[in-house]
Amino acid sequence: MESHAPGIDPVTQPPLDDRVGDGLARLADALRSQSWKGASKNGLTPTQGRVVALLQNAREGLRLPALASALGVTAATASDAVGALRRKGLVEKHVDEADRRVASFELTDAGRMIALDVALWPAFLTEAIDTLPSTEQESLLVSLIKILRHLQRAGELPPQRMCVSCTYFQPNVRPEDRRNSHVCAFLGTPFGNQHLRLDCADQNPVTDDREASELWQQFIGGPLEK
Q1: Residue 92, burial from CB neighbour count under 10 angstroms (0-12, 13-18, 19+)
Q2: Would 180 disulfide with which of 74, 150, 160, 190, CB 3.0-4.6 Å?
Q3: pLDDT in tens, 3-33
Q4: CATH 1.10.10.10, the chain: domain bounds
Q5: Backbone angles phi, psi at 45, to 5 degrees
Q6: Alpha helix ranges (H) inside the chain
Q7: Across the beta sheet with 91-95, what order do the strands follow?
Q8: Could you tell me the fold of the domain covering 17-118?
Q9: pLDDT digits (tens, 9 = 90+) for 164-198
């Protein structure tokens, strides 16, 4: 009779999706812990650190509603974080001369220095991922994009500036080159799944549901979503 480790019955284990979800939750715990450590070192909260990271990738700055949406928090919470960063001299406010009721926020030089350190907070996870073969890393990236997109469509995540929901994304239009089968129309450059971005400052989101569905199905193949 085949024996198993004490307490482990392969027949009654939780479903595979539950175990994968548990693994992702454990990674989230590790990231949250690391964020607190990195934030404390720089005199920031994790939310303030996220604001710094978002502004680092926004060449023309971001308005408060956009920051709140990207963070998945209320406008009041985003305003508190931005206010604290302004008092620390890490963020500056720019008022629109055409409409002084409108303002955007950008990093100061000091903020950009902090942003370099903020970018290193998840480095421990990057090092772990780097132990995987490149093919597994690519598969993991595509799987994460599928999960993120589902959560976004379910309203569990704010809009993500991903390639797969961008009007410039032309998926699988170069079948002769399996490693670079897509094209970015903005750059006029072919690229492959290994180059897909989760956050692109040049992203132009597809707003029509039918077009978004067609784009997604062209990327993954299969029938259109309902």
Answers
A1: middle
A2: 190
A3: 555 566 666 778 889 999 999 899 888 888 8
A4: 17-118
A5: -95, 160
A6: 16-41, 46-56, 64-71, 75-87, 109-118, 123-129, 134-153, 209-220
A7: 62-63, 103-107, 91-95
A8: Arc Repressor Mutant, subunit A (1.10.10)
A9: 999 999 999 999 998 999 999 999 999 999 999 99
